Structure to design on (1045 residues):
């Protein structure tokens, strides 16, 4: 399973530096032997994703690789890639990190190898990530972090963090944020978790999260609430993954009943994205299950609906036709087909039709009694 | 009317001016030919204009033939000049200065070369004190000098010269120039002409101040003396004072001197312009150009009027001898053939009668028939030993001296020269030469400059009317990797120098400013330009390749350093290893480049680059006949065949489309 490739957080930095050195040494040797050095990385695209295997639990990158040989045309990218790798080594050694934008600005003192704009540096960064992904590493190990942050957490959880400057341990009690919440950092590899919660509940919308947090839903049902905020960021996925793995507790997803909520938000959370398949082994939560809202719920709870828009239908059909995850799950195919047949969608908050706290008092308790029937 | 015809009539008139005969009277003899009559009409303004309006009632006679006849009077050429000086290049003060200098310098160079002396020239133009529109022009040469008896006529009589009556390549042609300059000065400033001349070391130096009697076209001496000492063993100095303005630019005297130095690398010229700037053009070549031979006219090159004059003036007693002796390339057999054919067209003459006909007695219709036959008869091309080209080596020498880039770098400065073999237009031999300078030191974003030369004389006016301009414009320079706005000169850091030498250069007018568009001349011009353009193209390609390689190398070096640096940062090796990696990286990427370079070097072009100093041969040895075989049929010379192989198909098609030319195709030229 995915575990096979994950890196022991204790040894992560060591492995990162070794990997960078291994790549650099390969290039150095090629040059010394008078051969053209090469950079090898998997092709990063939807086309290069393998058939979904439940055993594996996430969307795997395919076999296609691209080789960049040193030549007049590639010399600039070659130089930039190596400089970027060098920067990464430096970040690991100084226990620092750089956002994508930081890295772009860092390049400005590389002389001729400086990047012209950020998309250029992002591409090189993704290439390096793809390169090191073959060794089980992700961008976060290289100490490159996204600029956006991802998700909020509340509930029965204590997060063990460290002061970056002093190394002093810092413990964050997620029960003590009042009506606010703990914000997941961009970089979660170093975090440790202390919890006796029974499960993690991932919620699509900030509004629903706010309701459950304000009414301390987690206290009554002994759980941890996570706000995904749409399609979950890498950090958010990684956080949930590490949390659930360490605490050995299940993860339930509570999203809108529409193709976006299912095919994008839930699918990304569970098995990773198609575009960054080379790092899916890190950024997936294979143990996640789908709590709701299901098409059946729309009928059962007589939820108010909106008709499916054209782009919803397109997305649903796309999922049925091309997505390895759904292709591997007939149950999901049925559900999506059912949604298409109904021609409607319903939001989480549609439950408010029966009262603002109906979701807390009725819907969720009822659902949680039958976790076995959750969609995969 | 073409040029030869026109000169014909000027000369005829000069004769009349010299011997004052009242040929305006009713008893005057009938005009010899139509051109004479034509001249009389044109020159005499007193003739009443033809009534333009249709008369409603019969117009009243205002004058009788008798009363009008009384007004007819001969005009001398000198008088004609004073009224029509623009015809000879004295249209405006700036141009007058150029024309004056040009005529004096042309004469000086011609004289030196004819005498076999390497020319040393001094040209000084000084403003006359107290005037801002008068200049004194002094031109001194180290030529053979002029004997005292001739000085007056050479400088004080129009159309007195040694060059008009012969077919030989020289700068001056009509003998009108220098005396016209003198006359111009006399008219505009009232100052006489001063001539100092000495014919040898033990000979006296004469100083003569003379004026021109414009009515009689005769010199009038104001003073003559012997100078005690003169710094030169032999030579001639002329000093004229003329109304003029001194200007810079394309039409300037400065430019004329520059270009003259270019086309006469065997001359040493010291030039002081009116601003007091001394310019010295050193002698680049220490051998005289080949002496051009004098030739007889070729039957294909003459005009009816000229034929008439030749018949009138010949000493031959019969037509056969006349044809054989007065023309070149006419054998006994040719002469008989011509006469036989002529006799067929003249009903009242038998062939045998015709063979023995006295040339002087030929009647007009006979002459016309003869003229026709002469034009139709196939004959050998005229001999080409009357030509003296500059030669590709000396063209390069001249251009190199003029545009010397200082530190010569063959990759940045290109110079080439090409001398075509002689060719013939209408019975006149001519030869085209082209030189191209390209690169460092020349303005890049403007049109290329085109220098035009005829018999080594720079042509500065009327570029638009000139065949050389047309040839340069009509060539598709884009084919040779240059930018060229449609129908104009290419835009490049380039000077194109084009020289036509001929015993009779077909100018479009007497002021000798532009060359007429004979298809044969255009064709030769284009071929010469193409040869040079191809060499230039090779240079440009090589240069671009070199620059690309350079750029590539720089680009690589720019990024190779960060690579070794990054590897050092990750792997932590020492500076020595880093340097080694850098070297290895460079070696890894460079080798292909070295191979390409060595291939390029194999191409060697002998007409390109820095001239190696004067070689023995000026140009290819000039064959007796070119392009024509013994029987007169065109034959592909070796060169023509080689040309056909190298002329790209597209160029040929273009040439055919634009000029109707046939480029050599194996057997033809």
């Amino acid at each position: 399973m995915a575990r096979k490739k994950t890196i022991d957080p204790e040894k992560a930095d060591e492995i990162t530096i070794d990997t960078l050195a291994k790549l650099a040494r390969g290039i150095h040797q090629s040059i010394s032997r008078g051969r053209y050095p090469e950079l090898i990385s998997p092709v990063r695209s939807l086309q290069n994703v393998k058939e979904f295997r439940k055993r594996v639990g996430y969307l795997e990158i395919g076999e296609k690789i691209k080789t960049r040989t040193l030549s007049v045309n590639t010399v600039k990218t070659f130089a930039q890639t190596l400089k970027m790798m060098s920067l990464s080594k430096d970040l690991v050694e100084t226990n620092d990190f750089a956002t994508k934008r930081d890295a772009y600005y860092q390049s400005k003192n590389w002389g001729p190898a400086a990047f012209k704009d950020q998309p250029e540096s992002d591409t090189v960064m993704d290439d390096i990530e793809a390169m090191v992904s073959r060794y089980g590493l992700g961008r976060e190990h290289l100490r490159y972090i996204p600029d956006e942050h991802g998700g909020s957490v509340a509930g029965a959880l204590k997060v063990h963090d460290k002061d970056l400057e002093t190394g002093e341990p810092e413990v964050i009690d997620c029960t003590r944020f009042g009506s606010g919440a703990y914000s997941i950092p961009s970089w979660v590899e170093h975090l440790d978790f202390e919890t006796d919660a029974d499960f993690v509940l991932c919620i699509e919308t900030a509004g629903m999260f706010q309701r459950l947090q304000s009414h301390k839903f987690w206290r009554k049902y002994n759980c941890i609430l996570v706000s995904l905020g749409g399609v979950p960021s890498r950090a958010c996925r990684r956080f949930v993954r590490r949390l659930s793995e360490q605490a050995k507790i299940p993860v339930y997803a509570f999203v809108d009943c529409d193709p976006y909520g299912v095919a994008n938000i839930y699918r990304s959370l569970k098995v990773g994205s198609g575009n960054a398949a080379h790092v899916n082994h890190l950024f997936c939560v294979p143990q996640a299950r789908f709590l709701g809202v299901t098409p059946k719920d729309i009928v059962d709870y007589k939820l108010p609906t909106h008709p499916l828009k054209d782009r919803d239908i397109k997305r649903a059909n796309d999922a049925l036709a091309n997505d390895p995850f759904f292709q591997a799950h007939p149950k999901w195919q049925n559900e999506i087909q059912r949604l298409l047949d109904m021609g409607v969608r319903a939001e989480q908050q549609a439950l408010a039709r029966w009262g603002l706290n109906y979701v807390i008092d009725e819907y969720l308790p009822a659902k949680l009694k039958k976790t076995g029937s959750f969609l995969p | 009317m073409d040029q030869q015809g026109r000169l014909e009539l000027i000369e005829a008139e000069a004769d009349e001016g010299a011997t004052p005969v009242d040929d305006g009277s009713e008893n005057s003899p009938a005009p010899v030919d139509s051109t004479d009559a034509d001249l009389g009409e044109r020159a005499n303004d007193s003739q009443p204009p033809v009534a333009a309006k249709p008369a409603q009632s019969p117009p009243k006679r205002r004058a009788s033939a008798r009363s009008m006849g009384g007004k007819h009077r001969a005009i001398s050429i000198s008088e004609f000049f004073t009224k029509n000086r623009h015809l000879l290049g004295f249209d405006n003060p700036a141009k007058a200065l150029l024309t004056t200098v040009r005529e004096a310098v042309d004469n000086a160079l011609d004289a030196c070369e004819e005498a076999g002396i390497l020319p040393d020239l001094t040209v000084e133009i000084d403003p006359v004190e107290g005037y801002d529109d008068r200049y004194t022009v002094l031109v001194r040469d180290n030529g053979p000098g002029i004997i005292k008896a001739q000085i007056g006529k050479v400088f004080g009589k129009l159309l007195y010269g040694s060059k008009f009556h012969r077919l030989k390549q020289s700068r001056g042609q009509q003998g009108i120039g220098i005396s016209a300059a003198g006359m111009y000065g006399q008219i505009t400033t009232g100052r006489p002409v001063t001539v100092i001349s000495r014919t040898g070391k033990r000979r006296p130096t004469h100083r003569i101040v003379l004026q021109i009697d414009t009515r009689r076209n005769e010199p009038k001496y104001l003073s003559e003396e012997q100078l005690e000492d003169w710094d030169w063993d032999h030579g001639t100095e002329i000093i004229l004072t003329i109304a003029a303005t001194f200007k810079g630019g394309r039409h300037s005297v400065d430019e004329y001197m520059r270009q003259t130095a270019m086309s006469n690398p065997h001359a040493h010229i010291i030039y002081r312009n009116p601003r007091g700037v001394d310019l010295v053009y050193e002698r680049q070549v220490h051998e005289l150009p080949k002496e051009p031979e004098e030739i007889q006219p070729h039957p294909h090159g003459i005009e009816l009027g000229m034929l008439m004059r030749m018949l009138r003036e010949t000493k031959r007693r019969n037509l056969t001898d006349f044809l054989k002796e007065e023309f070149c390339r006419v054998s006994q057999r040719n002469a008989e053939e011509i006469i036989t054919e002529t006799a067929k067209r003249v009903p009242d003459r038998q062939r045998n009668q015709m063979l023995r006909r006295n040339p002087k007695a030929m009647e007009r219709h006979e002459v016309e028939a003869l003229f026709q036959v002469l034009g139709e008869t196939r004959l050998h091309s005229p001999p080409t030993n009357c030509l003296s080209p500059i030669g590709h080596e000396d063209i390069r020498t001249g251009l190199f001296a003029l545009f010397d880039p200082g530190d010569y770098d063959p990759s940045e400065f290109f110079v080439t020269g090409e001398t075509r073999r002689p060719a013939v237009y209408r019975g006149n031999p001519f030869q085209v030469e082209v030189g191209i300078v390209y690169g460092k030191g020349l303005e890049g974003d403007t049109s290329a400059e085109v220098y035009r030369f005829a018999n080594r004389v720079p042509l500065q006016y009327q570029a638009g009317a000139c065949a050389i301009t047309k040839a340069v414009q009509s060539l598709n320079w884009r084919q040779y990797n240059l930018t060229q706005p449609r129908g104009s000169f290419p835009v490049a850091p380039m000077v194109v120098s084009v020289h036509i030498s001929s015993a009779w250069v077909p100018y479009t007018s007497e002021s000798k400013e532009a060359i007429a568009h004979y298809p044969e001349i255009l064709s030769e011009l284009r071929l010469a330009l193409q040869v040079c353009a191809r060499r230039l193209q090779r240079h440009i390609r090589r240069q671009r390749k070199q620059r690309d390689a350079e750029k590539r190398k720089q680009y690589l070096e720019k990024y190779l350093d960060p690579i070794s640096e990054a590897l050092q940062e990750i792997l932590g090796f020492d500076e020595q290893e880093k340097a080694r990696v850098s070297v290895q990286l460079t070696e890894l990427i460079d080798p292909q480049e070295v191979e390409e370079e060595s291939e390029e070097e194999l191409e060697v072009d002998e007409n390109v680059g820095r001239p190696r100093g004067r070689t023995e041969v000026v140009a290819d040895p000039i064959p007796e006949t070119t392009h024509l075989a013994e029987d007169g049929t065109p034959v592909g010379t070796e060169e023509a065949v080689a040309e056909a192989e190298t002329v790209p198909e597209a160029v040929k098609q273009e040439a055919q489309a634009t000029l109707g030319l046939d480029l050599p195709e194996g057997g033809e030229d």
Notes: Chain A has a mean pLDDT of 88.
